[in-house]
Write a structure and sequence with these properties.
Blueprint: E1 5-6, H1 8-15, H2 19-28, E2 34-38, E3 41-47, H3 48-55
Antiparallel strand pairs: 1-3, 2-3
Helix pairs in contact: 1-2
Length: about 60
């Protein structure tokens, strides 16, 4: 089964944040991403399943 991946820009658009914010989350380890090196260029890809956990709202404390 092939994983589906999204770019930081696609993630930013879905979460309504700037793509710089998504790249910072990746750099600090707050968002898990695959790193692809192409010469000097570094690209990141994020699994759709990872974003699904972020997009799913969690219940308030005490209601879970």
């Amino acid at each position: 089964m092939e994983q589906e991946y999204l770019t930081p820009r696609e993630i930013a658009k879905r979460l309504r944040v700037d793509d710089t914010t998504v790249r910072r989350w990746i750099r600090t380890g707050a968002l898990e991403a695959e790193t692809i090196r192409e010469g000097k260029r570094i690209r990141h890809r994020i699994r759709k399943a990872t974003i699904a956990t972020i997009e799913t709202p969690s219940p308030p404390p005490g209601l879970a």
